[in-house]
Amino acid sequence: MTIAIDAAFDGGNIRLLAIAEERDRTRVDLEIVRDHQSDFFQWFYFRAAGLGGKPATFRILNAGESAYPMGWPGYRTRASTDLDTWRTIDTRYEGGVLEFDWTGDTSLAWFAYFAPYTMEQHARLVARTAQAPGVEHRVLGHSLDGQAIDYFRIGAGAKQVWLYARQHPGESMAEWWMDGALAWLTGEAAAPLLAAATVHVVPNMNPDGTRRGHLRTNAAGVNLNREWHAPTVERSPEVLAVLRRMDETGVDVALDVHGDEAIAANFIAGFEGIPSFTDAHGERFLAFGRRLAAHTPDFQTELGYARSAPGKANLSMSTNQLAERFGAVSITLEMPFKDHDPNPDPIEAWSPARSQRLAVSCLEVVAEMIADGAL
Fold it and tell me: Which of 11, 36, 104, 337 has the most crowded Cβ, counting Cβ within 10 A?
């Protein structure tokens, strides 16, 4: 039985190059497809049918040409046979080729860069959240492909807290984080935070890239996190719609949720290089990191990005723009495609469940800091 490779589904990305039947296994050569009108690529998600219990080796031949090849060493592919449970499997990277074996006894298996969070899953998240008491749902605008930019308003407190994710659609752990955040925000534990703050949530900033199987860009090949200084209807209507709503509400605290290819840890990045930066402003950002590290073993402060030099912040990036525009304590949260090495999981590595739990930890720290006047 010949193996069939498919990726023409919600969030799928792969191209079949060749299938070779060898004596003891089948070799499948593949390549990741570039984002539309862009050179970015790294996200993959595909189905293999007809496996029939025979060992197979999958080789992604253009992995070394991807956007972040430094992310492959130490990385482990996610695999599933039911689309609910995703486990890591041994993965090799050598000579620009990413390679992994499958020896399962099922005829069907799915493989992905990280456990997917598709637009179908997004629709279900929106549906169940919109039904929760005290939740206001709006469509802030539409993407270039005509998809809704979904938004929730929860709570009635004075502090304006913004949560937004999936500017880079291949970073699916970001919407798993949102899934956990919205579950917590619509439960009883969130009551103290919602009395002190109004929480604004955009669970997916880039629905077009998500559905198309992009790594980093929207339907026009635009990196949304380089559009916040001057978004336009033609290039970045997603950012334009969200920023207009932020201008209406103001922003005191913002969390922009992402995934990082290379660093095997959770970390945050800030706004040190903005023109209006003060030590007091920066200390509130640093305090959040310290408190989060003390709150959960799934966070640390030693690893992360280099700080921007004074006055050198890129104001096209949302964290910098919101800190400068509103004086917000603006935070980029990065989660790994690999694992959180200070607290690793040898079976699932960094996972959907851990992303959901980290969201709760983040919101508990936000609530604590607002309560004691630190935010």
Answer: 337
Q: How far apart are CA 251 and CA 246, in angstroms?
A: 6
Domains, in order of start, for the chain: 4-112 (2.60.40.3120), 119-371 (3.40.630.10)
Query: For residues 147 and 208, is the Cβ–Cβ distance under 8 A?
Result: yes
Concatenated DSSP letters of 315-365:
TTSHHHHHHHHH--EEEEEEEESS--TTS--TTTSS-HHHHHHHHHHHHHH
Active site residues: 334
The answer for residues whose C-beta is within 8 angstroms of residue 124's C-beta and 6 or more apart is none
Residue 286 burial by Cβ neighbours in a 10 Å radius (0-12, 13-18, 19+): middle
Phi-psi region of 270 (alpha: psi -120 to 50; beta: other; left: phi over 0): beta
Low-confidence ranges of the chain (pLDDT < 50): none
Q: Is 176 helix (H, G, I), strand (E, B) or coil?
A: helix
Q: What does the pLDDT read at residue 23?
A: 82
- Evaluate whether 351 touches 360 at the Cβ level (below 8 Å): no
DSSP string, 138-171: EEEEE-TTS-EEEEEEE---SEEEEEEE-SSTT-
Nearest to 268 by CA among 314, 316, 302, 309: 302
What is residue 2's predicted lDDT score, i.e. its pLDDT?
85
Query: Tell me, what's the pLDDT at 1?
Result: 62
